[in-house]
Every structure is written in C-alpha cells, then in structure tokens.
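User: Fold this; tokens only.

Assistant: Input:
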Amino acid sequence: MTSRGGLDKLKATLCAREDLQETGGLQIYSPTASIRLLKMFIALGVEMKRKVKQLDFVSAFIQGKVRSRICVHIEDEMAIVCPEFKMYIGRPLQLERAICGLATTEIYWYEDLDEYLQNLSFRISTVEPCLYARTTCLGTVRLINYVDDTLYFANTDEAEEEFTKQLKARFNFHLLGTAH
C-alpha cells in the first residue's frame, strides 16, 4: 500500500484445489523440528559461543520440484483475468514445480532441500530428520529446518559464509541474522 492508500503492485498466486486431488497413497507431510531439537540446538550454539542465525526461504514451496506426474486444468475464468493464458485453457498442463494448494507441496520442498543438502555432504540425523551437519576443512556447520525456515551456526565464520554461498546458488532466501 502507498501512503495514499493505493496499491504499489498486484500479486497473484496460482493455487490448486486440494479437494479435487488424489494422492495415490503418497506421503504428504514434511518433517519438522521438534521443540526438544530446538532447545538442544540453541544450547549447543551457546556452549560453542556461536550465534544461531536464521534464514527464510522465499516462496519455499514453489521452489520444490514435482517428483511425480501432476497435471492441472486452468479454469475458463482465467481467460478473462489473463488473456495470455487463453491458449492453455481446456488442456491438461503438467507441473514441473509445485504450486500452492497441492497436497504434496510440502514433501516436495523437503525432498528438494534434503537432496541438495546431502549433495553438499551434509549428514542427516537418524533420529531427527530436520537436523543436518557437515564438517569441511573450513569448519562444521549445523542446521535445523522447520518448514521454510532454517536455523544454523558454524564453528567458524568461513564455514558459515561458504554454507550460505552454496545455498544461495540453488535457493532464494533472506538472511535474517541472529535468531530471535
């Protein structure tokens, strides 16, 4: 909103109707960090005299790759709102990226993030599926993921900088500084 009460820009989000979806038995939840893990993580950061930092993934769920065949149908009313979509109306469209409202959006996001972190040599906890750690010559980075937010710290500034640089190469996120 502007100071005069007008709009600066218009935003729209394409959403799927969850009531019309069939999951076919797919797992449709995403693991999230427990309060026990959060307390342990903060205590470890304090013990190591490191600040626990936070980052927020921008539109995290739509950054996830669809891992199964999902087709959508654009309603006829979209031709009025967005005439450039007219050629797609009435045809099934296969999704490459997740959209809001998909029953499987959260798990696609988690699987995408998990795969990327493991490709960066992060080890995942066998007890807590949201806890990751990696040790390199620059130091050790630990992180916990909670839906689209991540808390992390490293035992050296260099390891922390390398981690955020590598993450930025794949995902869009905001560094929020020290966690509050």
